[in-house]
Amino acid sequence: MPAPDLPAIDYAALARSIKQWARELGFADTGISGVDLARDEQHLQQWLADGHHGEMDYMARHGAKRSRPQELEPGTQRVISVRMDYAPPDIGSAWSVIGNGELGYISRYTLGRDYHKLMRGRLQKLAERIRGEIGEFGHRAYVDSAPVLEKALARNAGLGWIGKHTVLIHRRAGSYFFLGELYTDLPLPVDVPATEHCGSCRRCIDICPTQAIVAPYRLDARRCISYLTIELKGNIPEELRKPMGNRIFGCDDCQLVCPWNKFAQQTEEPDFAPRHQLDGARLTELFGWSEDEFLRRTEGMAIRRTGYEGWLRNIAVALGNAPRSEPVLAALRARADHPSAVVREHVAWALQQHEASTVTGDER
After folding, report:
1. Is pTM, for the whole model, over 0.85?
2. Is residue 357 part of an annotated ligand binding site?
3. Is there a domain that residue 195 lies in?
4. Is residue 241 part of an annotated ligand binding site?
5. 159: closest CA among 218, 79, 213, 91?
6. 144 appears as a binding residue in the annotation
7. Which of 18-27, 60-69, 220-229, 301-310 bottoms out in mean pLDDT, i.e. has the lowest?
8. 160 forms bridges with which residues in the sheet?
9. Residue 23: which residues within 8 A CB-CB, separation 6 or more?
10. Would you say 198 is a known binding-site residue?
11. Where do the annotations place tRNA binding (predicted)?
């Protein structure tokens, strides 16, 4: 990133304009931070040393670049952080889906269009607007596309604090929002970092189905349902399958129970609206999808990240936790000889759960 060769610029006025332009592009909030993440680097190193990242080798692969923006993108002086709300209108209905074992629960953030391309495209438009105002400058946009400590940067930019569940929380908007960054070589004035407001509350810690929040502000991803259903390849540890319930892609419990989410803002982005009624579809229907149907129905959605094999694996676990019924048993038996050893193993486990329930008389 070359040093800027620019005429005299009122950077304070430019920062105000950037925030206005960002609002016009659909971002709910914008903040500016410096690049010092030394405290967060220590936290990251300890988290990695504890092995809490599981199979997410990419978390350690880039070394200090994750916590040193100026090494990831040489010349970076400031980071412009943005957030975009994604909560659907009926976010409260999530509990009713979780409570119905015949339905599949999918994390609310992934029910609509994949946010990565949408936000990155708008960050590029923001950069173009800045370029139109001051001329060429060094920049690069990121939305989960590089080793970036986005939550720490957003906290330093005043967009919220990192809660005990390790999710960013905004005092006036809760936590249902996406983050993106624009690294820049412009010496813009920085905003005041957000302060913490979790207090003595530990609802997120207590509600976690798999007890993945092992201490305040410390998440063992190896136990997190989002990791198990999205990042993990292969078999899900057997002792964590029953706690997963009917959660087949991600988990929102820690956010659903957070009192700050009474201030959550409903999304104004139509692309984030739920598609194909996936906000409460029947497990047996989803389990019957062919691979072509899976790819067609999830086109442009983050759900594709789990892959078809992972999709069937996750639903098999949920069916093993579902109330015993002939449709559930028939769906599982139809996949008992699936070509994938991973799918077969989880189907066999699910069938065993129902066989055990008949012995004990537990029809769930």
Report:
1. yes
2. no
3. yes
4. no
5. 79
6. yes
7. 60-69
8. none
9. 30
10. yes
11. 233
Is 127 domain-assigned?
yes
48-87 CB burial, b ≥16 within 10 A, e <16:
eeeebbbeeeebeeeeeebbbbbebbebbbbbbbbbbbbb
Q: Which domain holds residue 198?
A: 1-89+113-220+255-273
Is 81 flagged in the annotation as binding?
no
pLDDT digits (tens, 9 = 90+) for 197-236: 999 999 999 999 999 999 999 999 999 999 999 999 999 9
Residues 100-153: tens digit of each pLDDT: 999 999 999 999 999 999 999 999 999 999 999 999 999 999 998 888 999 999
The percent of residues above 70 in pLDDT, for the chain, comes to 96
3-state secondary structure of 180: strand
Q: Which uninterrupted H or E stretch holds 105?
A: strand 105-106
- Catalytic residue numbers, as ranges: 144
For residue 292, tell me if it sits in a domain. Answer: no
Number of domains into which the chain is organized: 1
Tell me if 324 is assigned to some domain: no
> How many angstroms separate the CA atoms of 134 and 114, rounded?
32
